[in-house]
Amino acid sequence: MYFITFEGPEGSGKTTQIRLLLEWLRQQGRPVLHTREPGGTAIGDHIRSILLHPDHTEMTPETEILLFSAARAQIVRQVIRPHLAAGEIVVCDRFYDSTLAYQGYGRGLPLEDLRRITTFATGGLTPDLTFYLDLEARAGLRRKAQTPAEWNRMEALALDFHQRVAAGYRALIAAEPARWHVLDASQSPEVIQAEVRGRVGRLVGWLVG
Ligand code: TYD
Question: Sign of torsion, CA 7 68 90 43?
Answer without folding.
Answer: negative
